[in-house]
Amino acid sequence: MQFERRRFDNRRDRGFNFNRAPREMHKVICSECEQECEVPFKPTEGRPVFCRECFAKKRRF
Question: How far apart are CA 50 and CA 31, in angstroms?
Answer without folding.
Answer: 6
